[in-house]
Amino acid sequence: MTDTQENKMDWIYQRCNKDTMSKSRFLLICGTIMLTITLYPVLRMLGVQLHATLSGSYVAGHHSILLINCPTEQVAKDIGRHIMEKRMAACVNILPHTSTMYYWKGEIRDASEILLLVRTRTSLIQRLTEFITAMHPYEIPEIISFPIEDGSLSYLKWMDVAVPEQTNSHHQPLASP
């Protein structure tokens, strides 16, 4: 610590303690409080996951659904197949021809697009976004995610098996749910 920080700690120690605790004990308590505050999000997440494991309940937001608009069915199929081959999604639905209106470069545009619904782990959203953006023909592709709050526990557990936490492209195919 710098001299200024040490002086502040000495001042706090002297103001809070009148011979009731040693300086090392005071620093240990302050360090423990700071460590607990810093690690709170991680400790909370571990507690929720432990509770879910022991009780068999679902952790809301562990999985997400992505909406991705594509210009053609072939582009949607190509993106969907690449996502599935990389094991970054448990399931991809390709919904045919949606009518879309949007602002682009100061004008209202009309288009016919294909909508992909992708079910995945929330932890993979950023990786998926980067992967899709790299292969998508649009300058700014629509990639929007929504957390899954609840659902069929057996389906959600199947999603965990279908999409491993650390993905790679060399996995055996899984049976459908």
Order of helices and strands: HHEHEEHEH
Which residues form runs of ≥5 with pLDDT under 50? 167-176
- Counted by DSSP, the helix tally is 5
Provide mean pLDDT, rounded.
83
| CATH top level assignment of the largest domain | Alpha Beta
Summarize the structure.
This protein is α+β, with helices and mostly antiparallel strands and 177 residues long. The chain contains 5 helices and 4 strands, in the order ααβαββαβα.
Question: Can you put this structure into words, describing what you see?
Answer:
Helix content is 46%, strand content 24%. The chain is an alpha+beta fold and 177 residues long. It folds into two domains: 3-55; 63-162, Alpha-Beta Plaits (2-Layer Sandwich). A four-stranded antiparallel sheet has the order 2-3-1-4. A hairpin with a 2-residue loop joins strand 2 and strand 3. The chain is elongated, with a radius of gyration of 25 Å. It starts with a helix and ends in a 15-residue tail after the last helix. The model is unreliable at 167-176 (pLDDT under 50). It comes from Pygocentrus nattereri. It holds the Pfam family CutA1. Keywords: Membrane, Transmembrane, Transmembrane helix. Homotrimer. One of its GO terms (biological process) is response to metal ion.
Provide keyphrases for this structure:
four-stranded antiparallel beta sheet, single chain, Alpha-Beta Plaits, disordered C terminus, 2 domains, alpha+beta, elongated, 4 strands, 5 helices, 177 residues, 24% strand
